[in-house]
Structure formats: C-alpha cells, structure tokens
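Query form — protein Phosphopantetheine-binding protein

QUESTION: What is the three-dimensional structure of this chain?
INPUT:
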Amino acid sequence: MSLSHAPHDDLEAELSRIWGELLDVDPEEIPADAAFLRLGGDSVLAVRMSAMVRRRMAVELALSDVTVEITLARLAEAIRRRRAGGNGAQRALPVEIERRADPSAPFPLMPLQQGYFVGQHDGWELSYESAHFYADFGLAGLDGDEAPEALEDALARLALHQPMLRARITPQGEQYVLAPDAPGGIPRPRVYDLRAAGPQEVQAHLLAVRHEMRTTGPNPLHGPGLDIRLSLLPGDRGRLHTGESLLIMDGWSATLLNRELLTLAADWNAVLAPLDVDFGDYVTSLGRLRDSEPYAADRDWWHARLGDVPRPPALPLRADPLDVRASTMETLENHVAADRWAALRDQCARREVTPSAAMLTAFSVVLARWAGHRRMLLNSLQLNRLPLHPDIHRVIGAFATTMLIPLEPARGRTFAELAAETQRTFTEHAAHNLVSGVEVSRELARRRATTRPVAPVVFQSTLGMDAAIGAQAESAGPLGDLNFDDFHQQLRTPQVALEARFYELRDELVLVFSLVKELFDTEQVDAAFADLLALVETLADEAGWDQVVDLPAAAAAEPAPRLTLDRLPEPDTDHGDGPPVDELEQRICTVWEEVLGVPVLDRGAGFFSLGGDSLLVVRTLARIAKETGGAPSVREFLSAPTVAGVAAAVRARLADARP
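ANSWER: The structure tokens for Phosphopantetheine-binding protein are given below.
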C-alpha cells in the first residue's frame, strides 16, 4: 500500500496502532486519508475501535463520530474536539461501566429480551414456546471414548468463565445468574452413543433429535438457556447439536460460544483470558443512559420522524398472522462461492460500501419487486454492543437490539447509487441507537393504536463478525475435525413473518430466508429468494453495480382487495368509555394504577396509552389473577388492552372455570 498521507503526529500514530491491531495491517502502512472501511473495517470492528480509543486514550467518542467511512485523519480531529470539549461533545456516551457489588443480584431484561419473554407467554401473534436458534454440524475423526468427557469438561469451564450460561429468567421478567455450585448451575451436555447403529437407525435418530430441538428450545424460565448434545456415530464420526435461547445470547454470542467451547474441548489445559466485565454489569450501567441528554436526544430524533414512517412491504398473504399457529419457521438457504464472495467484497471496498449495506440494498430491491412498491419499513437486528469496555466483544449475553429502517429505493438508479444511499440512511439511523428499535416500535404502535407488529420483515447481517471474533479452528481435539459443509440451522423468533440473514461460513457467503411458511405463497417465496440470490451473484462483477436496477413505479402501496402484510385488520376493542361499570372493572383500574403509577378512571383507557409496555402486561396479569381468581392470557390482554376489554376476558375465563 502506498502512503498518500502518513501519520504525522503522536495522536495519529496511536490511532494507526489501534487500526493495525484491529485490521491486521502494518500501522506504518496506514495512510491518514484512508477510510476504515477501505482498509477492511466494518461496523462491528468500529465498535471495538471505539472501546479501544476510550480505554487507551481516555476519550469518549459519540456514536456518530465512528462511522465505517471515517479516515484516520478525521478520527484524530474528532478526538481533538472531544478533548477540547468542542462541537458535539454532548453526544459522547455519558456512562462508565461499573462492576456490580453482587454478581448474583437480579437485573432487568434488555428491550429485545422483553419481547422474547412476552413472546414465550404467547403474547404476540407468531409466538412460540421458546425463542431460540438451533444448529448442528458434522464431526470427523472423533474419539468416541474421549469426546464426551472433553465436551462436558469444556462446557463446565466455559460456564464458569461466561456467567450468562448459568442465567435464569424470573416469572416477573428479571434475569439473574446462578452460582456455579447451585443445582443446575452448570449446564451439561447430553450424549447419544450410536457407534454400533446401522444407517437407518442413525438417520432416524438424527431426524428425531433435530425435530425435538427445532420445536422445543431451551427455556431459561425453567432451566438452562443452552442445550448441547453430542451424537457419536459409526466410523469415528459425530454431530454436535446446539440449541441457544435468544433470551440469554445473541448471534455474536452464539459464534463466541462455539469458538470458546471447542477451544476448551481441544485442549484440557486451555485457559481463556479473564473477563473484567459481565453482561449484568453492562445492562445495569446501560440503565443509567435513560436519564441522560444523549438518550433524550435520540428519543426526540426518532419521535420526530414517526409521523412519516412507512408501513412494512405489502407482501401478499395467504392467512392473517393472528390465525396462524406455527411450530417452526421455514428455512431457505443458498451459498455464494468463496471466490465470488471475495470478488463481491472487493467491489464493495472499491465503492466504499459495506457488504452489509449491499445486502440490505439487494433485499429491499427484491421486496419492492415482490410487493409492487418501493417505500417500506424494515426491521434490522443489530449486534449492538456499545463501547463501554474493551472486553464487551468477548462477553456472552443478549446484547442484540433492533433498529427500524425506512427505505425507498429510487427508480432509474444503478445498484451502486442505491447502495450508497442505503448506507447513508443506515449510518444516520445507527447514530441514534441509544433508543432501541423495540422502544421505537412501541411508540409507533401506540400512535397507530395497534398491538400488531409494526415491522415484521427483518434484515440481519453478521458479515464481518468472524473477523472481529476470530476464525473458527478446524479441529477440536477429541471431538475431531469440524465439518461445516454439512451444517443445519433453524431460527424461531416471535413477531417475525420473514427474516433475511446474511453471514459467512468457511469463506462463503450464506443467504437465508427464515419465514412463517403458512403466511405466504410458496411459489412467491421461492421466486423472491431466487431473485435475491441472482442479484447478489451479479455484485461480484463490476457490471452488476453499474446497471440500472429494475424497480416498480409505485412508491407507496395502494390498498388491495387481498390480505397484505402492511394492512392487517385490527381486532374490535371498543367496549365503551366512561367510569367502571362494576366491581371487577374497578379492581382492574386499581391494579393498573398501582402498576403504572397513574390514575385510571375510564373503562376505555388503553394500557399502552397510559404508559404500559409488554413486560408490564405480564406482571399486571399476575396481579389480576391474584385479585380476581382468573386472568386472560397475554394474547387476550393485547387483543383488547382496555380496562373494559380485560374485564370482559376475565369474566369469560371465570365463566369457563365454573363446573
């Protein structure tokens, strides 16, 4: 790499050392005018960079300071402004992470955890008994005698190192960590020995385990949030099965779990670097943000835009999501070969667009073609680890959050132009992520007077995560060599109709649709997925970026006679206004007043308009059950969240309970 502007002072020299460490390049070879993105950086590594700057240089950067497009020189200038208390200093994160005095004390659920928690109470449409991710992959050259003990030992050591592997969720919606010596504190793997079994028995076993773990995930309300199983198969082969509750770990954590578990299994003497922080410390410290000026500024920024936020894409539906009771989500998967994926990344770098922004652009184009319009609201799952500590990226926990992204790919533009605009939109919204997408969605739903999901189409990219965490080893000692060419996965998450996921596996790009198949026409889904794969494949070549993208003429969706995802019918919740009509309604008013801390005088008052949220619904129902002897389900509460509506549901429950 030629130097166009070498670092010229101590500050830029220190930054170049940080960049060199993160990007695995020689610090002396980093031009001061080269963008972080152009050198191989991405948004995941940018968070780590912020944390390192904070620790080594005692400077707090704002989220808007550290974009992937920033150059070394511009970052140095931002740091100088911070040190001088100049322009925008108020946007820096005003929180210092602190260790909790009692690591076993309960702490709150993060917003997305709250959504999963309520979903496991059958609160939402498209809910499941467990929100979890399942995966299994092959093992070759496995030592059937040594592998079970090595896996159990590795899991026990990892649970001591990573407290969230010992986490539990209370019925009231709090989380805590069991002591290592508490009953059930250390999760243990389950081992199946089929080394002497025939091919048919092996196949039947694998299908049965896969079905069980896909449809019944680990639930930290009742036990460990992690389910690890090992199948010992003939010919020194095996399969490692993992089920991970989304209540205790996100996608980053799941990857970290695999890395650390297999590292420990490979070497009885391996020792992981100690952690100076845990997830409970992070969540507790983060709670202080809500009283800060930056949080208020982000909340105001989002609220000012909610009046013009579009609806989700108008995808045609076969059924109303309220009427669907799915047990699993359908998975469509395809791969882009390693050489084509490398070429695609090179094309992204040349245009200073992240691969994630390119994939989001491609997904929005495909959705526009499918729905017949261009303006839409998507939900994006974010690996949102704020740079409060340099060890944050090594901690297992449910850090993830969501971010709403309004998109409108314009007609007559090349893909390169669309991707650049998407990246600008994404960067602008990500700079205001102190307020999570879950909180923004609640406010949007309140304004629209709906309890239905406002953004059920999700985009998730973990591209770049392997580089940030570290590549997976090829072998795990007694467990043998890892075979990800034979990899199976299944996602189950509430309130999601369709999710597109993009990640890397063994140097290939993997594209996945996870969807509730009962909602959509199979041919339309297959066509959309094929369209996405074809579009992504073209991006490995320069011509794919320079072609004008074919898009529908309509910007917004027009009302259609058929059922579409953007215009779902609302349940009739009008039970009338006025004072409580009987003792039951008065008792419900009293419970709401105690839970919400506001007067409740009107039987038509809405729980959410009074300041309630989904987690408080669960707690309120427990109080109502105690006060009245019967309570509706979370879903029944949400279908008519007024005093009168809940009272009607209670009456129905009490009537059903009579002999």
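ADDITIONAL NOTE: The CA atoms of residues 266 and 477 lie 4 Å apart.
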